[in-house]
């Protein structure tokens, strides 16, 4: 049996953290390894505990979730960050994704859907709701990667199409019969050639330019 997914809870409301912990602790493949009450503490705990997934609130006193995200990326922390936000805070989701979040869920998410989201981002997927994808596409239009698709090799185009399909590096490796190390190299080359920051932008670029095959 695989090791459980190590999860860190970062939210300034103790009741919310308690509720999340209560549910997640009954999942056989998920282990809550710690909690934090604000973004600064969340960064410190993530560095100490090295969780696989961080459930991060956006609006917190002091260091908010987006600033904490940026700090984690600066530190090179490999944790996948799943933003937890309310429906009324949708405008904060785009900055969070641009800061490096792997996706987001609303605070009223169904418990089973939350567990599925944690498993999904841990596996390397990106969680985007249609309205957020549209917002990102609008902001990126005309900025990055324009006219550069011709610089991609045929293999890189195949990898890009699978990124757009939400596949993790491991899944891409299986689909194309490659090693994960080779896939990582292809992903890095794609980002460099298209002048993109991360997999989220690559997936959106592929959709916008009809590169999904």
Please provide a written account of the structure.
- With 213 residues, the protein is α/β, with parallel strands linked by helices.
- It has 10 helices and 5 strands, in the order βαβαβαβαβαααααα.
- The protein has helices at residues 14-24, 39-49, 65-75, 93-98, 111-122, 130-140, 154-164, 169-176, 180-194, 199-208; strands at 5-10, 30-36, 53-57, 80-85, 103-106.
- It starts with a strand and ends in a 5-residue tail after the last helix.
- The model has no long low-confidence stretch (mean pLDDT 84).
Secondary-structure map with pairings?
Elements: E1 5-10, H1 14-24, E2 30-36, H2 39-49, E3 53-57, H3 65-75, E4 80-85, H4 93-98, E5 103-106, H5 111-122, H6 130-140, H7 154-164, H8 169-176, H9 180-194, H10 199-208
Parallel strand pairs: 1-2, 1-3, 3-4, 4-5
Helix pairs in contact: 2-3, 6-10, 7-9, 7-10, 8-9
A few lines on this structure:
The protein is α/β, with parallel strands linked by helices and 213 residues long. Helix content is 50%, strand content 13%. The mean pLDDT is 84.
Structural descriptors:
213 residues, alpha/beta, 13% strand, 10 helices, five-stranded parallel beta sheet
Radius of gyration, in Å, reads: 17 Å
Shape: globular
Helix share of residues? Answer: 40-55%
Order of helices and strands: EHEHEHEHEHHHHHH
Quickly count the helices. 10
């Amino acid at each position: 049996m695989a090791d459980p997914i190590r999860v860190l809870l970062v939210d300034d409301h103790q009741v919310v953290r308690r509720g999340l912990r209560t549910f997640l602790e009954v999942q056989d493949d998920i282990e809550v390894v710690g909690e934090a009450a604000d973004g600064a503490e969340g960064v410190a705990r993530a560095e100490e505990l090295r969780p696989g997934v961080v459930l991060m609130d956006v609006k917190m006193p002091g260091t908010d979730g987006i600033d904490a995200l940026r700090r984690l990326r600066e530190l090179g922390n490999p944790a996948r960050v799943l933003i937890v936000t309310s429906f009324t805070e949708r405008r904060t989701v785009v900055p969070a994704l641009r800061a490096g979040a792997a996706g987001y869920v609303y605070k009223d998410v169904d418990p089973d859907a939350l567990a599925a989201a944690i498993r999904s981002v841990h596996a390397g997927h990106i969680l985007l709701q249609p309205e957020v994808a549209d917002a990102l596409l609008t902001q990126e239009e005309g900025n990055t990667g324009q006219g550069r698709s011709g610089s991609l090799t045929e293999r890189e185009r195949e990898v890009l199409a699978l990124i757009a399909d939400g596949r993790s590096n491991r899944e891409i490796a299986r689909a194309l019969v490659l090693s994960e190390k080779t896939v990582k190299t292809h992903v890095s080359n794609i980002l460099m050639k298209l002048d993109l920051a991360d997999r989220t932008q690559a997936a959106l670029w592929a959709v916008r330019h009809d590169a999904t095959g």
